[in-house]
Amino acid sequence: MGEFDKIIKENIEAIFVPLLEKLLGIQIVQSSELKDKIQRTIEREPDYLKQVTDSTGATFILQLEFQTTDDARMVYRMAEYKAILQRKYEVPVRQFVIYLGSSPSRMSTELKEEEKITGFVLKNIHDLSTNEVLNSDIPEEVMLSILTDYPQVDAAKVINKIVIKLRETATSPAELERYIQQLMVLSRLRNLDEEIERQIKTMPITYDITKDRLYNQGIKKGIKKGIEKGIEKGIEEKTYQMIAGLIKQDILTIEQIAEVAKVSVDQVIQIRKELYGK
């Protein structure tokens, strides 16, 4: 299983209902889990199977089945055969069942209308509204915002909103870290992993300041000094680091940073002065 499929499988229970409603237009009233796994391979041996060309020049797979019992489920078996053969050979398949029983057969030869395999409905994750998904209170759904349709120039702002929303909805630091890691994986589908990495430097998640790009790009002394002052004022080191990073990004206002960091506006202003002298 690929890393993207793994994330979807891990989060499917949380996103099942909202995804069906918003993307497929299906409102679920009740559901139950089907625990049976679909076999990866189905071993079937047709009675007679040939690739033939008829007098009209048509080439196709010819399948014959000889049936001694009046099997009501024969139509499903033949449909299964056809799907397997069609996928393997990619040519038309013609099927015939030759009944050998003594009494008249009542076997159905066609699937009911609702049972027919006619294709599938294709939906694009782009059909989801970025803002609608971002406004969800379900973090697993919020992460899908990274895959929705928004202008490339807005990618940084969208990512910033996702990270903030994940921080608000996560119930523990460990859960938040898991969401961020999953977001990093999903971001690769849009080539945004470097932008995600840049932004999560501002988050208090297994944060190592010695590896921070900002730390190594000229504000080492300012942050170190600011942290010391921040601790004296009752601000935790990780919170100070987060505020410093958000100020550096220059995306959010002072008021928004204060709200995200859960500190006062005056404290944010003071940290900005300590870092940049203004």
Strand order, sheet with most strands: 1-2-3
Question: Sheet bearing the most strands, described?
Answer: 3 strands, mixed
What is the overall pLDDT average? Answer: 79
- Class by alpha and beta content: mainly alpha
Tally of extended strands? Answer: 3
Task: Please give the alpha-carbon distance between the first and last residues.
Answer: 51 Å
Number of helices: 11
- Poorly predicted runs are 206-221
The structural domain count equals: 2
Portion of residues in beta strands equals 5-15%
- Overall shape: it is elongated
- Helix fraction, binned, reads 40-55%
| Rg, alpha carbons | 29 Å
- The sequence of SSEs as H and E is HEEHEHHHHHHHHH
Question: If you had to describe this structure to a student in words, what would you say it looks like?
Answer:
α5 (155-169) packs across α7, α9 packs antiparallel against α10 and α9 (237-249) packs across α11. The chain folds into two domains: 48-115, no CATH class; 126-207 and 214-276, no CATH class. It has 278 residues and is mainly alpha-helical. 47% of the residues lie in helices and 8% in strands. Mean pLDDT is 79; it is low at 206-221. The protein is elongated and about 95 Å long. The protein has a three-stranded mixed sheet, covered by helices on one side. The chain is built from eleven helices and three strands; from the N terminus they run αββαβααααααααα.
